[in-house]
Amino acid sequence: MPQHASHLPLRRTAALVAVLAAGSLSLAGCQGGSSGPARVSAQQAQQPTVATATHDEAPTRLAALTGPRLRADVFVTVAKPMTAKQVHDVAILAPGSVLFATGTVTVHGKPVHVASVSPENFRRFAAAGTAESTPVWQAVADGGVIASHAAAKRLRLDLGGNVLVSGKSALTLRLGALATTGVPDTDLVVDSQTGRRLGLTAANSLLLNAGKADPVSLASKVRKVTGNSAQVDLLTPPAASPIAFLTGSKAARAFGAFSYKYFPDGTIQPDAAWVSANIVTATVPILGTVTCHRLMIPQLRGALQAVQNAGLASTIHHYDGCYVPRFIERDPTHAISLHTWGIAIDIDASTNGRGTKGTMDPRVVSIFKQWGFRWGGDWSYTDPMHFEIGALLNS
Q: Which of 177, 208, 239 is the last residue of a domain?
């Protein structure tokens, strides 16, 4: 059970937010314990003398979390403060929502992104274990700062030590915990009073919970309200995930899930770390160089080699893409294309348009199916250029 040795004054915080996601947490001492599966390691640190700001509000101590957690599905941020009408119109689209402010400050002279937090209001949006860990949120409520592991390493911050954070004012804050922040591109988390002193006064971001609905559908509705002025990030995988129908116990773990941004033109920008770990460029028979998911390459190579061995290579003329992160027909109101995962490939698009019978040789189709592919020509609204992974072989 973590121990807490903080002597910082406590007080009530206001209603702006930030997020901590599950992962390993390191606390600079906290009173009480945490429940849930998140791993909390209590690293002891000497209590520093901290020059903190004077607080205007009455002291308070956080109680244990009651009620259900809310999954953070959609993150909305705008360059300018949202109007009350925008906040209302977006918030009513989701079963749960919380408003917050983000901005840029400097630490040791280096720019970092920070979000201000109301631990009472926001902790419900954190992941299992983190949401229940009162010591994590108390560190914020005590007027300290929480840093992501990457930021702490980059800025050489010591758990339990002093951090000079400069914004509108320069504040020396205690680093109370290290955690993976759930807000994209966010390095530090502070409470709302501290955020205001740093100049974070504009409510420019929202976290939304989609409930049982597809986060993609929620994000599309949000886009209609905010227009192109807002950036919309999906923090959870869509309901139409390939994991749902791929067979084999290893498939779900291997393909994984990723957060991503999408744009009005219907294109998608997946998380860079996921792309680096999974999307590869390789050489395959007949088509030459392709860029696909690493798990698809062996089956694609096997299918094309079988086509070549059967003397059918001349029936395939052109490769028209595999990894192309986008919505189906580049329409954000449609489902996400499996090309986003790099597990679908288009061949001879010029003669195999949607809604047509196409020119694909049935013997080629048969070979692809033997190698675990599904064919778009079998659909009620045909797409004969399209082959997608339906099952991972040897998984």
A: 208
The residues near 292 (Cβ < 8 Å, ≥ 6 apart) are: 279, 280, 282, 300, 322, 323, 342, 343, 345
From the list 91, 88, 74, 83, the residue with the least C-alpha distance to 19 is 74
Q: In what order do the strands lie in the sheet with 205-209?
A: 96-100, 205-209, 74-78, 230-234, 260-262, 268-270
Per-residue pLDDT tens digits for 93-123:
999 998 888 999 999 889 999 988 788 888 8
pLDDT reading at 24 higher than 70: no
CATH of the domain at 303: 3.30.1380
Range with the poorest average pLDDT among 35-44, 201-210, 230-239, 351-360: 35-44
54 & 199 share domain: yes
Shared domain check, 200 and 325: no
Threshold 0.70, pTM exceeds = no
Give the type of residue at 109: G
Residues in CB range of 227: below 8 A, 6 or more apart: none
Number of domains in the chain: 2
Tell me: do 285 and 186 sit in the same domain. Answer: no
Q: State which residues form the domain around 347.
A: 273-389
